[in-house]
């Protein structure tokens, strides 16, 4: 009887531990980028996302959709609620001619995106800066004003429950240097492993997943112009996805893959979902 009682107690303890572990493991949160789902921006993007199954968020196109306009943003919000698909991030933020490398041109665009984030409940405002639009981290004259702008805008993002996610063409060490200079929790990194590798930093895309930790607020999943992550590309996602899981990352993963038609968007995204579930489930 004692042995049986001990066995039952041990079994119950093991089951309780398994339940606790499951409760601590956040569900996979998958979004897609509006700009890659539809040729023209439209609130119907939420219906399209809902029809895929497994996608529960959308990264909207701020400038293309004019989402600082209250009535437009509210139209998006109503469709978001109707289809139970969240707006997770504000993409396509920079107006023509705006550049983070010229902070005076970027401030208005970022502020408009923060307005949209407040209305739509988005947690991330994606601030892009690639190549000539990216500050040079070996030149204080280049990065100093960028740091000042980000420190100025960080409280505005924080006050609406959002962070500014910087997607940059910097090396890993340069990312860390900029984050240390800004030193504000509402300024974080939007990590795109493929983008980093493609912009003169080969192998650093995977290293960033492994080492940046809580500095990452959101991540893009893409394979260049190839719509399927399972096909060969700069990032071997059979390594990248396990690295995301091992890192403990619990934020949104947003597909940024091109599709020629809405029908192909559904078909190809379902294949991508099946692929990533093999590594993240």
Structure description:
This protein has 281 residues and is an alpha/beta fold. The protein has one domain (28-280): TIM Barrel. The protein is 51% helix and 16% strand. The protein has an 8-stranded parallel β-barrel, surrounded by 5 helices. Strand 4 (124-129), helix 7 and strand 5 (163-168) form a beta-alpha-beta unit. Helix 6 packs parallel to helix 7 (140-159) and helix 10 (204-211) packs parallel to helix 11.
Structural key phrases:
51% helix, TIM Barrel, alpha/beta, 281 residues
Summarize the structure.
The chain has one domain: Divalent-metal-dependent TIM barrel enzymes (TIM Barrel, Alpha-Beta Barrel). 51% of the residues lie in helices and 16% in strands.
Low-confidence stretches: 11-23
CATH homologous group name: Divalent-metal-dependent TIM barrel enzymes
Give the C-level CATH assignment.
Alpha Beta
How much is the radius of gyration in Å? 20 Å
Q: What structural class should be given to the helix and strand makeup? A: alpha/beta
Instruction: Quickly count the domains.
Output: 1
Biggest sheet statistics: 8 strands, parallel, barrel
Q: Topology of this protein?
A:
Blueprint (H helix, E strand, L loop, with lengths): L1 H23 L4 E5 H4 L7 H6 L6 E5 H4 L4 H14 L2 E6 L11 H18 L3 E6 L10 H20 L3 E6 L3 H11 L4 E6 H6 L5 H8 L4 E6 L15 H11 L4 E4 L6 H19 L1
Parallel strand pairs: 1-2, 1-8, 2-3, 3-4, 4-5, 5-6, 6-7, 7-8
């Amino acid at each position: 009887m004692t042995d049986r009682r001990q066995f039952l107690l041990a079994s119950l303890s093991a089951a309780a531990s398994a339940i606790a572990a499951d409760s601590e493991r956040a569900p996979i949160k998958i979004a897609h980028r509006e700009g890659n789902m539809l040729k023209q921006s439209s609130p119907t993007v939420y219906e399209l996302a809902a029809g895929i199954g497994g996608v529960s968020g959308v990264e909207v196109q701020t400038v293309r959709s004019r989402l600082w306009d209250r009535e437009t943003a509210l139209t998006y919000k109503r469709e978001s609620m109707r289809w139970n698909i969240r707006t997770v991030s504000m993409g396509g933020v920079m107006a023509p001619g705006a550049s983070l490398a010229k902070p005076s041109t970027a401030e208005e665009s970022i502020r408009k995106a923060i307005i949209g984030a407040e209305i739509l409940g988005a947690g991330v405002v994606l601030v892009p800066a690639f190549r000539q639009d990216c500050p040079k981290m070996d030149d204080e004259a280049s990065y100093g004003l960028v740091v000042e702008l980000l420190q100025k805008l960080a409280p505005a993002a924080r006050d609406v429950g959002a962070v500014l996610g910087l997607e940059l063409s910097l090396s890993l060490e340069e990312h860390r240097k900029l984050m240390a200079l800004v030193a504000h929790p509402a300024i974080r990194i939007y990590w795109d492993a493929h983008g980093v590798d493609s912009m003169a930093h080969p192998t650093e895309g995977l290293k960033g997943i492994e080492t940046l930790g809580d500095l990452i607020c959101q991540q893009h999943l893409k394979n260049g112009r190839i719509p399927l992550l399972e096909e060969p590309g700069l990032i071997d996602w059979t390594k990248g996805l396990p690295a995301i899981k091992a890192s403990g990352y619990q934020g949104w993963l947003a597909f940024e893959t091109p599709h020629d038609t809405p029908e192909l968007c559904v078909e190809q995204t379902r294949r991508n979902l099946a692929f990533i579930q093999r590594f993240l489930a």
